[in-house]
Amino acid sequence: DAVAELISIARERESAMFTEAEGKSLLSAFGIDTPRGIEIAVGQIISDDIREPLVVKAISSTLVHKSDAGGVRVGVRRDEIDEVAARMGEQLAAAGHRLNGLLVEEMVPSGHEVIVGAVRAPGLGWTVMVGLGGVLVEIFEDVAFGLAPLANEQILAMLHELRGMKVLDGARGGERADIPALVTLISRLAGPNGLLQSLPDDVIEIDLNPVIVSGTRAVAVDARFVVG
Ligand code: ADP
Ligand code: MG
Predict the structure, then answer these.
(1) How many domains would you assign to the chain?
(2) 138 pLDDT exceeds 80?
(3) Is residue 2 included in any domain, yes or no?
(4) Which of 72, 107, 142 is the last residue of a domain?
(5) Which of 48, 83, 116, 127 has the smallest set of CB atoms within 10 Å of its CB?
(6) Does residue 35 line the site of ligand 1, with CB under 6 A?
(7) CA 87 to ligand 2 centroid distance, Å
(8) How far is it, in rounded angstroms, from Cα 66 to Cα 75?
């Protein structure tokens, strides 16, 4: 099937991963919101249905953390794409990476950045992790774990384990995140009929980092699928 084909294509790459666009189309198939976007070759024109502001991301089989190497530019206008691509190509080359193409997508309005990850634990199935993005995860290691398949109540309980849950709930004058939308997203990934349950054994790790959760939406703006 389609996933088996993606896996065999990923195995041919230098690091066995789905491309971001491949991962995102799989997420969409399970009803998980992702930004509208298109993969293009450098110099190619994008269609009008992708609306500004745009995000331009490097497609490179050797690059894992795109922004570390200058591989992500947010807030780009349509007429700036070529210029951004040229800079990106130079920066990637300097870091020893090839630029194979661009993923151009709509820039999702700002919100809380949440990390959702899953790792296959031998004999246990999928271990699911959720945390708040940025410094909260990196410095405070504010994360919660659960085992898939997760019921909605379990997902909500995991979110309430986070010290940062207050922030999601709109503490300190921040925007209140759409928690039901986030629970739905996690359920479509890790629930009883979720994506994780349908993946063949070859996929061993998934990272949605970040999911942007605003007052009205939860959108996976990055997707990494690792093939073992
Ligand atoms: P990396 O490989 O560096 O993790 P990401 O795809 O996560 O690259 O992009 C880096 C950052 O850019 C994200 O953490 C997010 O803040 C922002 N970003 C990426 N894509 C979008 C998007 N479509 N809309 C809004 N912000 C985005
Ligand atoms: Mg990311």
Answers:
(1) 2
(2) no
(3) no
(4) 107
(5) 48
(6) yes
(7) 20
(8) 16
